[in-house]
Amino acid sequence: MATRGLPKDLRHPSCAVLASMGKPMVDVLLLVPARDEPRFAHSWGPLFERLAAPLRAKGLTVAAQPWTDPIETAQARLVMPSLAWGYHGRQPEWFAKLDAWETAAIAMVNPPSVLRWNATKTYLVELAGKGAPVVPTHAHDALTIEAVDAAFDAFGVEEVVVKPQVSAGSHETIRVKRGGSLEGGPTGPALIQPFLPAVGEEGELSLFFFDGQFSHAVAKVAVDGDFRVQPQFGGRVSEIAPEPEALRAAAMVLEAAGPPLTYARVDLIRGLDHTPQLMELEVIEPDLFLEHAHDKGAAFAAAVMRAMG
């Protein structure tokens, strides 16, 4: 079977990636941004190739399709939402798709139930309640000055970070000092956390697990004066060997989250008490930074093959 993948002209990747009818079965179907999301049109292609390479090395065929397009039951042996960027801004549509895929028994990793759970960051509060080490987090249906003032006192800090409960890429995420403005912050349900100085010092640590087994880790450090560690904001990324306490913290997070997942990224940061704490658990469309894995993604591909049965 010929390998299917990106259209030859990556300048227009949101055009028909796969024909709408009569799609031949592929081994792995990677979901990519919707056709009407031009802001992602020039960026997902290279990451698709990075994910597809270790899968192809195992002899698997790989294709891409916008996550908003219908998926036929016999279209792929396994579906992965690894590049379904933009779903956070279309949550009702995303949840409807998850329901449809679940009803149709589409073979998918991670499972739709997990994707649904992970789409709203209140999972942080749930994991903390199960004993996982999580950055102190307050969840509110709406952001108010009163809620922020209460967080300053509860956390014992003079600066907090406010973010939406549903977001990606630091959208509507701001730092607020006592008496500061909430301009640019969440317009809907929000989370409030203490600002952690470690963001600008040692940075955030991302640990990657495939089928519950540790693979590799990277450190992400924000540029001076910023708190966002993502590369699009100038954050620096480097491979790192995590300390045992970080591995233990990540293991506690994954245990609290449930059965082992085909892929998971555990983002940790050193808390105010100087212990590793969970910032985010990414199990929908995390950047897996496979270029920093010693095996270049072989463990990822092996986990995908096990999921295929």
Largest sheet: 5 strands, antiparallel
Tally of contiguous helical segments: 7
Determine Rg (CA atoms, Å). Answer: 20 Å
Q: What is the number of independent domains?
A: 3
Helix content: 10-25%
Which runs of at least 5 residues are low in confidence (pLDDT < 50)? 1-16
Report the structural category: alpha+beta
N-to-C SSE series?
Answer: EHEEHHHEHEEEEEEHEEH
- How much of the sequence lies in strands comes to 15-25%
CATH class membership of the largest domain: Alpha Beta
CATH topology of the largest domain: D-amino Acid Aminotransferase, Chain A, domain 1
Determine the N-to-C terminus distance.
Answer: 19 Å
Give the tally of β-strands.
12
CA-based shape: globular
What is the CATH superfamily of the largest domain?
ATP-grasp fold, B domain
Instruction: Quote the average pLDDT.
Output: 89
State the CATH architecture of the largest domain. 2-Layer Sandwich
- Biggest sheet strand line-up: 10-9-8-11-12
Please give a structural write-up.
With 309 residues, the chain is α+β, with helices and mostly antiparallel strands. The chain folds into 3 domains: 26-118, Rossmann fold (3-Layer(aba) Sandwich), CATH 3.40.50; 123-133 and 199-283, 2-Layer Sandwich (D-amino Acid Aminotransferase, Chain A, domain 1), CATH 3.30.470.20; 147-195, no CATH class. Helix content is 25%, strand content 22%. It is built from 7 helices and 12 strands. It has helices at residues 44-57, 91-103, 112-118, 123-129, 145-155, 244-257, 298-308, and strands spanning 26-32, 62-66, 76-80, 138-140, 159-164, 174-177, 190-194, 204-210, 213-221, 236-239, 264-270, 276-282. Strands 10-9-8-11-12 form a 5-stranded antiparallel sheet. A 4-stranded antiparallel sheet has the order 4-7-5-6, covered by helices on one side. Strand 1, helix 1 and strand 2 form a beta-alpha-beta unit. Helix 2 (91-103) runs antiparallel to helix 3. The model is unreliable at 1-16 (pLDDT under 50).
